[in-house]
Structures are given as C-alpha cells and as structure tokens.
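Cont'd.
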Amino acid sequence: MANLDSYTSVKTGLFVRLQIDAYRTGSGGTYQNQVLRFSDYDTTVTIDSESYVSVGKLLNISSTSSELRASSQTVTVSLSGVPTNAIAEIIHSKIKGAPIKIYRGYFDVATDTQIGTFEQRFVGSVNNYSLQEEFDLLEREANNIVLLECASTVDLLSQKISGRKTNPESQNRYFPNDTAFDRVPTLKGTKFNFGAQ
Amino acid sequence: MSFIDSIVNVGKSALGFMKGNSIASSLARTALLGYALNRVNKSKNKSNKDTAPQGTQLNIDPDTEYSLPVVYGNAFISGKIIDAKLADNNTAMWICLALCEKTGRLISTAPSVISFEEIFFDNFRISFQTDGITSDLIYDDNGNSSSAWRGKIKVYPFNGGSESPTTFTSESGNGNSQNAYNIFPGWTSTDKMNDTVFCILRIQYDSKNRLTTIGRDIKFKLKNTLTEPGDVLYDYLTNNRYGAGIPAAEINVQ
C-alpha cells in the first residue's frame, strides 16, 4: 500500500476494468470486443494508457478483504442511473464470464496528484448479472441499476475441472476432429479369442 | 487239418454269411458299416482336438472415465487400453495404451520432451533387436535373461501424437519411425491422438512360451525434461487442457 504518512488529506477511488469479448448494442449485429473502464473518482484518470471514466457515486462496489494468501471472494459491482435505452446493450451482450479487474488509487487532495501506484484489489470474472428497475410513476421515468456479481479467480479455479478422459466426448472438446478415442466405449466388454484358429 | 485251418474256415463261413442276401446278412453288414464309420469319426475328432489351438478368451475392459495423468520428471506408468484388434488369423493382438498428457513449455520457452526409457511386460524387462521395435531377450528382477519371447512382441512408442514416433532411450537400434495410423490396423489419419503420449503393441500368440494374454501388467518408465519445480508450477498454472489455464501475462515470472 502507498505510504500516506506525509499527506494531511487524501482521497481515493476505485477503478473497474470490464473486458467483454462479445459486446453489441442491440439484438442484431455482430459481437465485438469492448473494454468498459469506469471509476467512482471525480475525474477521468489514466492507468496503463487507458482512461477510466468517472461515474462518481453511481458506482458502488462491495467491500473486499485483503488476506495474506489468495482467497476466494465475491464482489458485487452496482451501476446506478443506467438509462432505459441502454439496457439493450446489457441484455444482448455476453457479460457472464467477462474478466473484471478492480484497482484502488490514492490521490493528494491539495495537488490532485496520484500517490504511489494503482493497487490491484480484485481479479475475477462476472459470475452473474441482474437488472433492477425503479420506476417513478409521477415523473414517468425509470432508474435502472445493473448489478454484476463477480467471482474471484481463486473461486473460479476451485470449481474448475480440467484434464482429459479416455472417451470421445472429452477428446473432441479439445481436439474436435480427432477420432482416436472413438472406439473406447464399444471396446468395453468386447471378447477377443486370442490364438484360436 | 490244423487248428489254424479250422480258424480260417470259420472266418470264410462268416464272410460268406455277410455276403449273403438274407436279412441277417444285411443287418450284419449295416452294423459293421456303422461301427466302422463310428471309429473313423472318433478318430477324426480326436485328431482335431490335438492340433487346433483353442486360444485364450480375453475381455478388454477400457475405462471411459480414466483421466490421462500428467507426468513430470521420472515415472512408471501403465496407462489404459484405448483400442484393440486381432490380426493374422487371431494369432496377433494389437493394443494401444494411452499413457499420459504431453506437457507444455518450460519457462525458458524450450518445449518439454517425454522419452521412453524402458518397458516391463508382466514384470519382465524387454530388450529389443536392432530394429528397436521387436523384442529380443527379457530380463527378470535378478537380471536373469530368457529368449522365450524373442520376436514375439513389437513395441511402437509415441511421445505426443500419432505423428510423433519415438524410440526407447535404453536401446541403440533404429526404433520406431512410422506414424501410428500406418501401424495400427484400421486406423486412419484422423486418429491423431493429439498431445497424447501412448504406445502400440503387437503381441504374437505363443502357448508354448506362455504368451497367451496381452499382459496382465505392462509398465513403462517415462522421463520428462520438465523437472524443475518452477517449470512444473508454471506449466500447471498456464495449461488450458490439464491445468488452471491462467493467461501467461498474469503470471509474474522472474
């Protein structure tokens, strides 16, 4: 963590990098790669040559805990104030499974300069997402909230089953045109009269 | 007239009776013919039993839920049968044993190589003839040798797919150089065995020398050049097939 001892007042911000490999704005059209970068800081900040748009209080991220060893955690990222006409982008894009990274940065209030470097807070993938709608009948307006439930990489790895089994389904998952394991199921129980004439 | 003449006369009268046209003569001829046929038949069956090999009925039991292991360093491994076929009028048995996964690269980016060091067939170590494929002497644990299985077993090792033939490092012979689908009966070029370390065996039936099964216990001694703990951890973290599949860019290698 950055050394803050010499600063009288400090402000902080969380920066979210969401990489969506299949992104589109409507039900039709082709999928494209899209990286969404936003933060709850009050101005746009550049990290590793990438700009993070400020959305201020509209971004809320549940707390994370820092542990000595990598542990499995779940983080919920909520984005408020999403206009109704932008909901289609969320519904028709493949957000589930998208890699997400969350950084924290510290800034000097007096000079608005960054203190130290950005610290990685969370690395994982979007496990699920949901939409909440708050409809104001008098104003005839809807306020949408997007909730992203994110599982850490450690959590995903603990659930991951890897490896190859000696059956055609398993082989074809990695090598679609390889027929080498195709005969294993039919071979089971087959009798061979070895040496009989 | 001696007693010999008396016996001859009795025989003549008996044959004369058989040649006759009476019912008794016909019955006697039928009975004699039946007896003769019966003896011939028995003789024929007895002869067949003595010469035709009965063979050994083998039940191959492959496992569709067997996970291919990952071998780092040195290991003895048995593998699982993934294909079997009888050939040459049932006197030769072809089997293919899937042994382990082909591993990835070292941190230095050099590819790892898995080599075959030895093969043990029912606890006998097999040595090879100059072709590096055909069995020569076999050795027991005490180093005693026997030529009983000389020329009876052929071994074709592969260390990364059907198009990756290799040889036993313990042998100085020519070794295997053909693609697997050109060796195993019935295989085609789509039987690629991608990224699999495996071995094809051809076993010649020999009841005299007790080579009547495909081996109750076949073991291979393998050696992987991927041995250092850092290389092993890196390979396991990054491999998409049998490891964690973490992108290499997210691993700080120093």
